[in-house]
Amino acid sequence: MSNTPETPLLDQIRRPADLKGLSDAQLEQLTRELRAETISAVSVTGGHLGAGLGVVELTVALHAVFDTPRDKIIWDVGHQCYPHKILTERRDRIRTLRMKDGLSGFTKRSESPYDPFGAAHSSTSISAALGFAVARDLGGDVPEGLGDAIAVIGDGSMSAGMAYEAMNNAGALNKRMIVILNDNEMSIAPPVGAMSSYLSRLYSEAPLHELKAAAKGAVSLLPEPFREGAKRAKEMLKGMAVGGTLFEQLGFSYLGPIDGHDLDQLLPVLRTVKQRATGPILIHVLTKKGKGYGPAEQARDKGHATAKFNVVTGEQKKAPSNAPSYTSVFGDSLVAEAAADEKICAVTAAMPDGTGLNLFAERYPSRCFDVGIAEQHGVTFSAALAAGGMKPFCAMYSTFLQRGYDQVVHDVAIQRLPVRFAIDRAGLVGADGATHAGAFDVAFLANLPGFVVMAAADEAELRHMVATAAAYDDGPIAFRYPRGEGNGVEMPERGTPLEIGKGRIVARGNKVALLSFGTRLAETRKAAETLAAKGITPTIADARFAKPLDRDMILALAADHEALITIEEGAVGGFGSHVAQLLAEEGVFDAGLKFRSMVLPDIFIDQASPADMYETAGMEAEQIAAKVLDVLGIAQIGAQRA
Ligand SMILES: Cc1ncc(C[n+]2csc(CCOP(=O)(O)OP(=O)(O)O)c2C)c(N)n1
Ligand SMILES: CC(=O)[C@@H](O)[C@H](O)COP(=O)(O)O
Ligand SMILES: [Mg+2]
C-alpha cells in the first residue's frame, strides 16, 4: 500500500481488512489521521467526542489484530464508537452522525455488521461478549461467522452491577473471551466509588520495589512480546505483584495495566492474546479521555459531549437560550426546598450535571449522593433513605430509570416509601435517538398502586411539582419533564405544593376538550390557535396528574364536550390509557363520547431533532389540530398524518 503525503492512509481504508497490510508504523500514522477525522466530523455534527478520542489507538489496534465482523467488538455504551465507524465502511456518512436519517451516535445492529450488538445504555458489553462466546462454542450460526468476542468497557461503566454479574458468569463458564477495561479515570463526571479507587490502586499504589523484583524474576516467563524489557514486564506484572486482582479472583486472566495510546504495547498484547487466550481474559488499558485535542483534554468533562465547534479554537456553537432548562429549574428548585428542610437529600446515578444535581451537590455536599452508574442500587438506596426518615429525591433520566424498575416496584412501591422520583429527559430527546427516549415511565409507574405520577407542562409547573414532592410524605411520587429549555414563562420565586390529583382548566371552549399531560400543552395551545381560525374553540386542560387522575375534571370535560382528546409524550399504556379506563368504567363511552388518545406510536423513533421526532410521532400542533378536525368529522384539505 502506498503512503505519500498526497494520499493519506485513511483514504485507502474502507474496511478493517484494509488494515491488514499496514506496518506498525503505518498503523501509527493511521491513528493520527483517524483522530483528526474524528475531531473534524464531530465539529460539524456535535456529539460524544472525548470518549472516541481516547480509544483511537485501541480502535486501530483491535481492527488491525482481530478480524471483524467475524470477531465481535462490543463497545460498551457505544458513545466511543465514532473512530470504529470511520474504519468500518461508514466514513462517507460520518458527518451525518446523530442526524435525522444519518448514522446513529451509538453502535446499532441494523446499521452495520461491524456493530454486532447495539448499545447506548452502559455496562452490557461483558454479558453480550459472553453470549457471543457461548453461541460460538455451541455452534451458533450468523452470516459473518462467530470468532472472538471482545468487550470494551470503560471504568465508569464498570460501576454497574451488570458488569459483575457478567464476569461472575464468565469466570465460571471459562469461555475464551476478552474484556478490555478502558480506564480513563472518568465517567461523564469524575468517577466515584470504591471500584474506581481500586482500579487506580492497581497502577498507582503498587510498591515499586516489589514490582521491580517481580519483573526481574519473571521476565522469562512472559510471552514472547512481553520479553522486551523489565519496564514493560513490570507493567504487566503489577496485578501479580499486588497479590492478584479482583478480576483474577473472578476467574479472568488479568493483563496490564498498559498504555492505551501506545501501539507498541497494544499491538503485541492483543496479538499474544489472540494467539494464546483460552479462557476469559481482562486487559487493563489506561487512556486519556479527549486525548489529542486540547480543548477536550482541558474541558471539565474531557469533551464527553459537545455541540458543533470550531476546530481551531474549540469554541462551541450553541444556540442562544431563551429560557432556563428544565434541568436547571429542577436543580435550583430542589436547592430552595432543601434550604427549608434538612431531611431533603438527593441521589444521582453518575449524572450529576445532566440531572442538575451538581447545583445541589455544591450547596449540600453531605446530602447529595452520586452512586455511579448503578440505577438499581440508586433506587433501593433511596428507598432505604426514605425508610430511615429522610426525603430522598432520586433524580434519573427516564430511560435510565428503566434499569431500576424492579427496585421501583419491590423496594419503593410495595413498601409505599416516599421516594421522590425526578424524571428528566421525559419524552423524545433528539440526537441520542430511540435508546434515550423517555417513552415508558408513565406507563410503568402509573400502574403501580399508591404511586403519584405528575408531568410538568412548563418550567413554572416543574417548580411547583418539586415543592409538591417535597411536601408529600404518604408514598412514592414522581414528576417528569423533558430535555431542553422551558417556555420562558414567568417563574414563581418558590414552588407551591399542588393539590394531589387536581388538574387545571387552561382555556374554556366547547365541542372538543384537549386534555394535555406534560409539555405538549404548548403545542396544544398552538393547535387551538389554528382551530380558532376555523371557528373551533377547544377547551384546554392540563391534567398535571396521571395518577391519581382528576376524576371530577375529566368526567366534567367528558360530559360537557362532544369529543375528548388526551395528549402526552409517552407510549401507550400511560395517561391516556388511564383516562380511557376511567371513562369506560364510568360508562361515558356508552353515552357517545368521542375519545382519542395521542401517544407516541408503537415504533422506536430514530434520532432527529425533537420537533422532527414529534412530527414522526404525529404530535406537533398541526397534527393535534388535524386530530380535532378528524374527530369532529370536519373535512380537511391536505390532511396531515395524525
Ligand atoms: C445505564 C446508563 N446509565 C447512565 C448512562 C449515561 N452515561 C453514558 S456514558 C457514561 C459514562 C461512562 O463512563 P465510562 O464507561 O468510563 O466511559 P468513558 O466515557 O469514560 O469513555 C454515562 C454515565 C448510560 N449510558 N447508561
Ligand atoms: C452516552 C450517554 O448516555 C449520555 O452521554 C447521554 O448522551 C447524555 O444525554 P444528555 O445530553 O441528554 O445529557
Ligand atoms: Mg471512563
UniProtKB/TrEMBL annotation:
InterPro entries noted in UniProt: Dxylulose-5-P_synthase, THDP-binding, Transketo_C/PFOR_II, Transketolase-like_Pyr-bd, Transketolase_BS, Transketolase_C, Transketolase_CS
Pfam families assigned to the protein according to its UniProt record, in alphabetical order: DXP_synthase_N (PF13292), Transket_pyr (PF02779), Transketolase_C (PF02780)
Binding site for thiamine diphosphate: 79, 120-122, 156-157, 184, 293, 375
SUPFAM superfamilies recorded: Thiamin diphosphate-binding fold (THDP-binding), TK C-terminal domain-like
Keyword Heme set for record: no
Keywords: Isoprene biosynthesis, Magnesium, Metal-binding, Thiamine biosynthesis, Thiamine pyrophosphate, Transferase
Residues annotated as binding Mg(2+): 155, 184
Occurrences of domain Transketolase-like pyrimidine-binding (ranges): 324-489
Gene3D superfamilies on file: 3.40.50.920, 3.40.50.970
Pathway: Metabolic intermediate biosynthesis; 1-deoxy-D-xylulose 5-phosphate biosynthesis; 1-deoxy-D-xylulose 5-phosphate from D-glyceraldehyde 3-phosphate and pyruvate: step 1/1
Catalytic activity: D-glyceraldehyde 3-phosphate + pyruvate + H(+) = 1-deoxy-D-xylulose 5-phosphate + CO2
Enzyme Commission number(s): 2.2.1.7
Recorded superkingdom: Bacteria
GO MF annotation, one: 1-deoxy-D-xylulose-5-phosphate synthase activity
Entry similarity comment: Belongs to the transketolase family. DXPS subfamily.
Function statement: Catalyzes the acyloin condensation reaction between C atoms 2 and 3 of pyruvate and glyceraldehyde 3-phosphate to yield 1-deoxy-D-xylulose-5-phosphate (DXP).
Oligomeric and partner information: Homodimer.
PANTHER family: 1-D-DEOXYXYLULOSE 5-PHOSPHATE SYNTHASE-RELATED, 1-DEOXY-D-XYLULOSE-5-PHOSPHATE SYNTHASE, CHLOROPLASTIC
The protein's name: 1-deoxy-D-xylulose-5-phosphate synthase
Organism, as annotated: Sulfitobacter aestuarii
